[in-house]
Design goal:
160 residues, alpha/beta, three-stranded parallel beta sheet, two-stranded parallel sheet
Length: 160
């Protein structure tokens, strides 16, 4: 899941990874509910190759926040999926903050939300979103090693 419109994650994803934007929110939710092995790429704010899906202005964000299929997708993802926030300081007042607040009150599992943040941002995020487990780092050069460690730990948990 990303709010970026560029292609970086598409290039990094395994071949054949389904890509959904907010315009396909219903299909994305159905896909997530039905398929557990192959995770799609959710481009929440659109894709550069499809300008009609890109969300940039305050008015576009407001319309998106009123789109029930989009909100249903966010609720589903935030309530049922483990999430690692990476490269995002949890300070998007336009839609992800809204989803985080809704997840807090919807009974989403607290242990399933993580954020990798610089230590200077940690206290503010912990106060604002107590359901998020914050993983801190001292400087940006340590991020690749932390991500590699998280990947190894996740793979070990998947083994019987």
């Amino acid at each position: 899941m990303t709010t970026n419109y560029d292609f970086v994650l598409q290039y990094a994803a395994p071949p054949g990874t389904p890509v959904f934007t907010w315009r396909e929110a219903r299909q994305a939710r159905e896909y997530l509910a039905a398929v557990s092995a192959h995770r799609p790429l959710l481009k929440l704010h659109g894709c550069a190759s499809r300008p009609d899906t890109v969300v940039l202005t305050g008015l576009e964000y407001e319309r998106l926040r009123q789109n029930e299929e989009y909100l249903s997708l966010l609720r589903f993802v935030f309530d049922s999926q483990a999430i690692l926030f990476l490269g995002f300081g949890l300070s998007d007042p336009l839609d992800l903050d809204l989803a985080m607040r809704q997840a807090r009150y919807a009974g989403a599992a607290e242990g399933e939300k993580f954020a990798l943040l610089h230590r200077d941002c940690a206290a503010q995020v912990r106060e604002k979103f107590p359901q998020v487990q914050v993983i801190t780092y001292p400087d940006h050069s340590s991020v690749p090693a932390i991500i590699a460690q998280l990947v190894r730990a996740a793979r070990q948990r998947q083994q019987p």
